[in-house]
Design a protein that fits this description.
The chain is built from no helices and seven strands. By secondary structure, it is mainly β. Strand 2 and strand 3 form a beta hairpin.
Length: about 110
């Protein structure tokens, strides 16, 4: 889709002929589970994440949905409220004891 824009106040020093990329969301899912794409662990025939439960990390196979350069939607494999590990993934194994240093809520994304 091509559009043309008119900028009245040139506060960003645009010049005639400049291009811009505009992302228009066409579908919004208020109940989507979104995680950083860095926490996806690719395997031979699956995509996985590690979920924290009762002091241990557990590998969960997930189905990926829409994604951006930094975030990815999980269609199934985890539930709302699960704690997905985002760092230290190279050292974690299934049923491996872990300690959580910080929990970051991403519901504001």
């Amino acid at each position: 889709m091509q559009i043309r824009a008119v900028i009245e106040k040139n506060s960003k020093n645009f010049i005639p002929g400049d291009f811009a990329e505009v992302v228009v969301p066409i579908q919004v899912d208020e109940n989507a589970i979104i995680v950083p794409s860095d926490c996806i662990v690719p395997e031979l025939n699956a995509q996985t994440v590690f979920v924290f439960h009762n002091g241990k990390a557990f590998r969960k196979t997930v189905e990926l949905g829409a994604r951006t350069d930094k975030m990815v939607q999980l269609l199934n494999g985890v539930n709302i409220g699960d704690t997905v590990l985002t760092t230290g993934l190279m050292r974690v194994k299934d049923n491996f004891p872990v300690k959580i240093k910080q929990v970051i809520e991403t519901s504001a994304l």
